[in-house]
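Below is a filled-in request sheet from our internal design queue. Each sheet records the structural input a requester submitted and the sequence that came back. We keep these sheets so that new team members can see what a complete request looks like end to end.

REQUESTER: design group, bay 2
PRIORITY: normal
MODE: inverse folding
CHAIN LENGTH: 551
BACKBONE (tokenized):
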């Protein structure tokens, strides 16, 4: 009987089709419910066990632990997830990705899987081509294409491996023991960047009789360790948190993998005796699931100390810049990026408030110090505070330009525009005060009674108006009537203060603070308060409300 040669290209085509199918499956689900998964991960990760369950569920549906890990990194960078919560989601993602093996073992080797894939491909391709104007049906088509390609690729790999069952002598690997199969699984998974695809290859080889259940389980352990290479490669030039998460993933998979490998034969025999499996494929996928479940049970009690340990490392990779949130994340996830911008704007407002209060001496003991106290007193560098706000403005503007390149929805584009208008109003407000801060200091240090009286009125006015603005921001209030009232108060204050100044101009000491200087300070202060009030017209609280409603 003539031997049928191993069709390498058929096997490689099958692997390519499988990976291409996984990409389409991922894209289809992202299109159908991408933001739902964003919100799910953000909302249900405040406890470690919730993070594990969420990571398992989302990965089981998306069939991509890499995709879930990217989402986790985005939330981690935006400050929406703690490192501890992110670690829980990664543990869950490792378990969720085992669903592929269960589907393949249950369906893939029990029927003609090529025939099984045809209806999905037919409906999916037709939906994608002819229903482009209906996004939901089009994305459903992409999902069906991915599902069909998964099984078509599996059929190609299965047939190719079946032909080589009697032609390959694995004694070369067997003579080195199970370590050789572990290393083989690790290397191949690192090369193809998909543990799901590697597990399908292992199941196909086991089904064809090329390897036994011990060797296949050793390869699966290697695949679980090899899959950490995806995150490791992505973290080479990444942020500190990305590197910490990548290191944690290596620790998770390697520790439990090596521990189970040491007792591999006992574990396999124990499961076989306990559950009396007659199907080696089903035993193998159960062992794969137990491997990842074991990792969760071992590490979940130690996530808190592990987080503290990881926080001590990779400080040299901390992102550079003055921003707190946007510097840690990519613009690949617009919803997360917009939330980070909103958080950044709240922080900018606090910097602006601090700068203005410092300039007017609000909350600071302005009594003149005497003696050695004045010698050693540290001066407030107002220019440094202003420069920091300007640097943040530049970083936000750069991030804005990068985010504009993403495929934003109309609502997201409107929110982004509103955010930048808010930033502009904040910067205009702080610049109004910066332009007269030397005049304010001159008034503060003078002995001019009229100047000190005007300054006192300005201090009370600024503290009161900024208190109203701050309360509106923190309480998420958007009341046009209140905004109009505040602007009217600003106008009234301006008129009354200018009237007071000119009413007392005759008694004013000409050697004191010039009237033009005081007039300018009054004008710029009222202008600053008007600019800060303008943030309510640009949707500062609307940004936060929009995200809250989406959650």
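RETURNED SEQUENCE:
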């Amino acid at each position: 009987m003539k031997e049928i040669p191993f069709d390498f290209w058929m096997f490689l085509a099958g692997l390519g089709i499988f990976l291409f199918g996984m990409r389409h499956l991922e894209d289809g689900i992202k299109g159908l419910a991408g933001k739902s998964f964003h919100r799910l991960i953000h909302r249900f990760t405040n406890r470690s066990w919730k993070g594990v369950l969420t990571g398992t569920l989302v990965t089981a549906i998306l069939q991509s632990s890499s995709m879930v890990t990217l989402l986790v990194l985005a939330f981690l960078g935006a400050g929406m997830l703690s490192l501890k919560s992110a670690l829980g989601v990664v543990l869950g993602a490792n378990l969720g990705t085992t669903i592929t093996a269960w589907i393949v073992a249950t369906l893939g080797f029990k029927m003609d899987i090529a025939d099984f894939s045809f209806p999905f491909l037919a409906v999916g391709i037709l939906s994608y081509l002819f229903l482009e104007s209906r996004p939901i049906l089009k994305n459903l088509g992409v999902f069906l294409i991915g599902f069909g390609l998964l099984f078509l690729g599996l059929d190609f790999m299965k047939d190719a491996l079946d032909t080589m069952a009697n032609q390959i002598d694995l004694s070369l690997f067997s003579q080195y023991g199970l370590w050789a199969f572990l290393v083989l699984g690790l290397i191949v998974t690192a090369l193809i960047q998909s543990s799901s695809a590697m597990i399908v290859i292992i199941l196909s080889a086991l089904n064809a009789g090329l390897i036994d259940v011990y060797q296949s389980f050793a390869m699966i352990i290697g695949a679980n360790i090899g899959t950490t290479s995806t995150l490791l490669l992505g973290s080479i030039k990444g942020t500190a948190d990305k590197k910490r998460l990548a290191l944690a993933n290596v620790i998770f998979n390697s520790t439990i993998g090596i521990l189970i490998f040491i007792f591999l034969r006992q574990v396999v025999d124990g499961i076989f005796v306990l559950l009396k499996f007659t199907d080696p494929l089903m035993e193998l996928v159960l062992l794969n699931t137990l491997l990842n479940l074991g990792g969760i049970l071992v590490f979940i009690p130690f996530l808190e100390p592990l987080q503290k340990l990881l926080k001590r490392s990779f400080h040299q990779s901390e992102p550079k810049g003055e921003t707190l949130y946007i510097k840690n994340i990519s613009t690949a996830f617009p919803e997360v990026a917009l939330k980070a911008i909103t958080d950044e704007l709240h922080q900018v407002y606090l910097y602006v408030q601090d700068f203005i209060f410092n300039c007017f001496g609000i909350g600071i003991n302005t009594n003149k110090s005497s003696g050695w106290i004045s010698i050693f007193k540290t001066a407030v560098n107002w220019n440094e505070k202003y420069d920091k706000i300007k640097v943040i403005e530049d970083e936000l503007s750069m991030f804005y330009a990068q985010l504009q390149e993403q495929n934003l929805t109309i609502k997201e584009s409107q929110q982004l525009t509103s955010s930048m208008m808010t930033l502009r109003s904040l910067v205009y407000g702080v610049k109004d005060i910066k332009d007269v801060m030397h005049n304010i200091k001159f008034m503060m240090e003078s002995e001019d009674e009229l100047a000190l009286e005007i300054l006192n009125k300005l201090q009370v006015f600024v503290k009161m108006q900024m208190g109203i603005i701050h309360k509106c921001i923190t309480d998420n209030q958007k009341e046009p009537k209140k905004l109009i009232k505040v602007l009217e108060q600003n106008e009234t204050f301006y008129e009354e203060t200018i009237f007071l100044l000119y009413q007392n101009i005759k008694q004013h000491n000409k050697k004191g603070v010039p009237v033009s200087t005081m007039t300018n300070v009054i004008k710029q202060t009222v202008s600053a308060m008007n600019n800060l009030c303008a943030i309510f017209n640009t949707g500062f609280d609307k940004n936060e409300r929009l995200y809250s409603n989406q959650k």
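SHEET NOTES:
- The chain has two domains: 8-317, 326-550.
- The first helix runs from residue 8 to 43.
FILED BY: M.R.
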